[in-house]
Amino acid sequence: MRRVMLTGGAGFIGSNLVKLILKEHPDIHVVNYDLLTYAGNLVSLSDVEDNPQYSFVRGDVSDLQTVKKAMEGCWAVLHLAAESHVDRSILDAGPFLNTNVIGTQVMLDAARFHKVERFVQISTDEVYGSLKPDDPAFTEQNRLKPNSPYSASKAAADLLVRAYEKTYGMHAVITRCSNNYGPYQFPEKLIPLLINNAMKDKPIPVYGDGQQVRDWLYVEDHCRAIITIMEKGVSGEIYNIGGNCEVVNLELVKMLLAELGKPESLITFVKDRPAHDRRYAMNIDKITRELGWKPEHTLSHALPKTVKWYLDSEEWVGSVLSGEYKEYYKKQYGDR
Ligand code: NAD
Ligand code: TYD
């Protein structure tokens, strides 16, 4: 049995990844290491909590002793835990530096101590900054030009991973993925926030002119890419992951409202996010050519499936939205 430590397993991508590994890799034991912040919810994993292939440790990635203990005997580390929401990083960058930067340094130190054979750093397209309409999609050679405290903290973490691989000769790879959608995403991000608001006939806040472009990937495709990279990724390499699916925000919002049978009059243009990245697009030739991964889901099929999941999962949405969410929502959208 190979032991894999997965940080952030109670979050959106992490919980989908835990379930996929348990379903398709009977030779892997998953140690889910998660602090259970506002974004981490064990209710997302209630169907696997008794699985003998699965264990959970509550802890902070910046706490070396607890991390070291949980990592004992692990063959691989999939490091997903992060503060992940750009808007929160603009309100307060502190937790982003602690979790995303110091947390990654601590994870790397522990992995080095235990001589872990695979370290996979889950990063983001946002580290590359923003593209103009006619720019070619980001390749792994693009310079890092982060524009938000979130993306700057992820870029810093990527550089630490690179430095540890070079300095200590430890195994480490970096994945950079575009925007994910699918089940179990916390309703502060565009798609679940929109569904949640629309079902209550509440306004849908669209930032600025809504002409920003994102490249959308179904979360299961991202999870399969991470597993492929854990198994076959070459140490020291960076792999871009994306959906080949650029969509203008306002178009996506309209698509979702149509799917929900709600009127476009719910759309409310609000003050733009500061330093809002205009466009992301990923060139995924490298991972396709070298590791044989490509996205399997299309937006036209997986977006309606995602909407249905949220409509069928009212209880999940209710259980993850604590009083903290109401406070955040007021701070974030109150004066815009
Ligand atoms: P999320 O916010 O849904 O989940 C983050 C998880 O990390 C939560 O379970 C939370 O409890 C945990 N966590 C936070 N701080 C912690 C700490 N100090 N110690 C231990 N656990 C802690 O995030 P997500 O959307 O699932 O993203 C996961 C990873 O993927 C992140 O590293 C993010 O940067 C990256 N990523 C996300 C996307 C996306 O579209 N969501 C795209 C590309 C990359
Ligand atoms: P988000 O889901 O926060 O992901 P990211 O900022 O990491 O791309 O936002 C996706 C896009 O939607 C982004 O361009 C910001 C925009 N957006 C809105 O227009 N309104 C909202 O209420 C939110 C949360 C996002």
Q: What this model shows, in words?
A:
The protein is α/β, with parallel strands linked by helices and 336 residues long. It has a single domain, classed as NAD(P)-binding Rossmann-like Domain (Rossmann fold, 3-Layer(aba) Sandwich). Helices cover 42% and strands 17% of the residues. The chain has helices at 12-24, 64-71, 86-91, 94-113, 149-168, 190-199, 219-232, 249-260, 285-291, 299-312, 314-320, 323-333; strands at 2-7, 28-34, 54-58, 76-79, 118-124, 173-177, 179-181, 204-207, 213-218, 238-241, 246-248, 267-270. Strands 3-2-1-4-5-6-10 form a 7-stranded parallel sheet, sandwiched between helices. Strands 7-9-11 form a 3-stranded mixed sheet. The chain has a two-stranded parallel sheet with strand order 8-12. Helix 2 crosses helix 4 (94-113) and helix 4 packs parallel to helix 5 (149-168). The longest helix has 20 residues, at 94-113. It is globular.
Q: Helix content range of the residues, please?
A: 40-55%
Count of folded domains: 1
What's the CATH H-level superfamily name? NAD(P)-binding Rossmann-like Domain
Distance between the termini: 52 Å
Classify the fold: give the CATH topology. Answer: Rossmann fold
The number of distinct β-strands equals 12
What molecules are bound to this protein?
Answer: nicotinamide-adenine-dinucleotide, thymidine-5'-diphosphate
Largest sheet: spatial strand order = 3-2-1-4-5-6-10
Largest sheet: 7 strands, parallel
Q: Please identify the structural class as seen in this structure.
A: alpha/beta
Task: Label the overall shape.
Answer: globular
CATH level 1 name: Alpha Beta
Helical element count? 12
Our Rg estimate from Cα atoms comes to 19 Å
